[in-house]
Amino acid sequence: MKKSESTDVALAQSLKSLMTRMPFEKITIRDITSEASVIRTTFYNHFQDKYDLLDWIFYEYYIRPSNQLIENNMLLEAFRLMIRNMEKDKEFFLKATRSDEHSLYDVMFRSYRDAALKVVQSVEVDLKEINPLLTEKLVAEYYASNISFLVTKWIEMDMEIPSDDVVDLFQKMAFSVIEKFL
Questions:
Q1: What phi-psi label fits residue 41: left (phi over 0), alpha (psi between -120 and 50 degrees) or beta?
Q2: Which spans in 20-162 are helix H?
Q3: Do the beta carbons of residue 163 and residue 84 sit within 8 Å?
Q4: How far is Cα 16 from Cα 8, in angstroms, rounded to an integer?
Q5: 125 and 182 in contact (C-beta within 8 Å)?
Q6: How far apart are alpha carbons 166 and 171 in whole angstroms?
Q7: Which of these, 170, 60, 160, 154, lies nearest to 107 by C-alpha position?
């Protein structure tokens, strides 16, 4: 691992640890750097602010591990991996959803939207022929909002429902529709 990557990971672990003990909106850059044992300027060499770091955490820990599955059009398996990885960090997610200032829903939405956009772009269908309103971005945002909503509700229910049941519900609600649609 490169030094810059290890710094990113140290800052991410710091924020995740802090978020299990205090609300996100109360966490300062000083708290993050102190916990990670780095100086403040190091933080700003890697991230713009704590929101940027939170986005990075979600992408790196929950979306990126699924990229290979997404690229191979194994969407259900990709979602299952994401949810299982989130389940492993249950305490972090339970605290993260209680943040008022920076919605975890928004963080998830951006990451899921970007992943869904890759999928939609890989499908060779002229969406405009189906309906003039349809764009790749619209379809990606539609599915990202559905996934984000479902995952947020699951987290708000203290993640008590097994992750496989969440994936099965999503499959029933979304994938059977998308396969027919595209």
A1: alpha
A2: 29-36, 40-46, 50-58, 67-71, 75-88, 90-96, 104-122, 127-130, 136-156
A3: yes
A4: 12
A5: yes
A6: 9
A7: 60
pLDDT tens digits in sequence order for the chain, 182 residues long:
555 678 999 999 999 999 988 888 899 999 999 999 999 999 999 999 999 999 999 999 999 999 999 888 888 899 999 999 999 999 888 887 776 555 788 889 999 999 888 887 887 777 777 788 888 888 889 989 989 999 999 998 999 999 999 999 888 887 565 555 55
CA 172 to CA 70: how far, in whole Å? Answer: 19
What are the chain's domains? 49-181 (1.10.357.10)
Question: Two tokens at 9?
Answer: 């990971």
Cβ atoms within 10 A of the Cβ of 64, count?
A: 14
Element (H, E) at 180: helix 176-181
Measured from the Cβ of residue 77, the count of other Cβ atoms closer than 10 Å reads 15
- Contacts (Cβ under 8 Å, ≥6 apart) of 153: none
Question: Token pair of 103, please?
Answer: 């919605």
AA identity, residue 4: S
